[in-house]
């Protein structure tokens, strides 16, 4: 039986697994295995909500083992650490418990086709202090670590153990940075409603962007301006054209010599693919992304495919795909189609991917949402407020429906909505 190993059960990987599992896994045509460092999936664009507690992993996480059992794939936990492409064998690193004790040893897994979708990690651009003194939102575990830190600081302020402002610096004016800045204000409001003794002016959030504008991914200037304006209305200080040169425990140094104090720093200033990809003997670019053709196939080895943030995919105009949720999803589904074609026919022309920009949305917690739909059509349709909020929320709903099917997915969404009515809005533990 054909062995297909998928490394990375993220935004793209889960939808690919659902499709492959249904067509090949459940029908016994292929043995499909997912490898992931984590043992559950949370949709990455919601990690900032996980980091404040407004998203409860207990309600939103998808357990790989149980999802796999129902959807025709099995699960192996651990990081991808090596590859022998001649033997068609990958190495999975050991896993450890919270005390650092080994749970599973390093091991090997054989494949006929390997699909890599390990996403991206924060790019520190070699700037001193970033690794040691800032948080990042690459993995669910990092979001949960950050949540503990934020709640501890808030609790200490509430109990009078810390005085003055809670200063937070966010480096990077893309979706992660912008949404986190707004989410912090939402968190403060919710904590106040739970009886935490926090002043309305507790937060001092500074958003620092090296480029000339926040949300450069939004295609229209007035949408980018609306984001900046709404952040400023919340009290966020937005610094554009500002380059950070060092991060310390006390704050950030900028290229102009200004020191920005910070009790809590989030680094969201750009991404690159995980380092391990550049050690596999496959062609990669300077950001460690695997070079693949527009069929998702590695330029080095036709038995290996990649998609999403960790793949460098050329487009007909010579550009490369942006690292975004929609590109991860679209290419992952095309890779699934191509694997099904290869399963049926030994000599077949694979499907080719052409990027279609369906739009971008940014959600400033409960305060505002803006975005642009159908950007591929004559500039698309700009939306703000409730309609934008509806479209933004429907992206996650679509992901859940894709993962669970219309009936179970629909029921889960209804249940989730009801839980939000009856359970606390904030996860504090
Ligand atoms: C807060 C936030 C907001 C965002 N908002 C938007 C947005 O509004 N619009 C948008 O288009 N994009 C947004 N993004 C980016 C979007 O989430 C990514 O582009 C998308 O998730 C990429 O999907 P992927 O499948 O390539 O990787 P991911 O979804 O990142 O999944 C990667 C998977 O690989 C696993 N993994 C990582 N390393 C290893 C390893 N060594 N071995 C095994 N497994 C590994 C991870 O655990 C994870 O399950 C946002 C990201 C964040 C953090």
From TrEMBL:
Short name of one Pfam family: Pyr_redox_2
Domain FAD/NAD(P)-binding residues, every copy: 3-315
Gene Ontology BP terms: aerobic electron transport chain
Signal peptide: none
Origin superkingdom: Bacteria
InterPro entries: FAD/NAD-bd_sf, FAD/NAD-binding_dom, NADH-Q_oxidoreductase
Listed GO MF terms: NAD(P)H dehydrogenase (quinone) activity
Keywords assigned: FAD, Flavoprotein, Oxidoreductase
Cofactor field: FAD
Family per similarity comment: Belongs to the NADH dehydrogenase family.
Protein name: NAD(P)/FAD-dependent oxidoreductase
